[in-house]
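Page 42, continued from yesterday. The earlier attempt failed because a stray header line got pasted into the input along with the sequence. Redoing it now with the clean sequence only.
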Amino acid sequence: LMQDELSSCSSKEPFALQVLGDSMAPEFPDKCMIIIEPADWCQSGMYVMVMLEGERWFRQYIKDEAGERLVAVNDLYPDIPLADLEWKPEGIIMQRNIRRKVKHYKY
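This time it went through. Structure tokens are written below.
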């Protein structure tokens, strides 16, 4: 195997991140842990990690008659319309852990 093939295998492993801030609360409160499965696709309704204009965002992806956008669970944060922006999915949130209480997300 070439080195690129080896490194691409490990990049497909699920990984954990800690949520910072309240933009995704109450579903994903500040400091909770999330498990992300690397993916280069997403469907409407999924909680996702995306690269948007060079920055990573954790939001819910919505696609409907109003177009594609990233939505925060917390209504204090505005939607991000994706129409004219450069973005790509990087992962799908598969699990949340709040003080050892685990919730799985099935899509």
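Notes: The mean pLDDT is 91.
Reminder to self: strip header lines before submitting.
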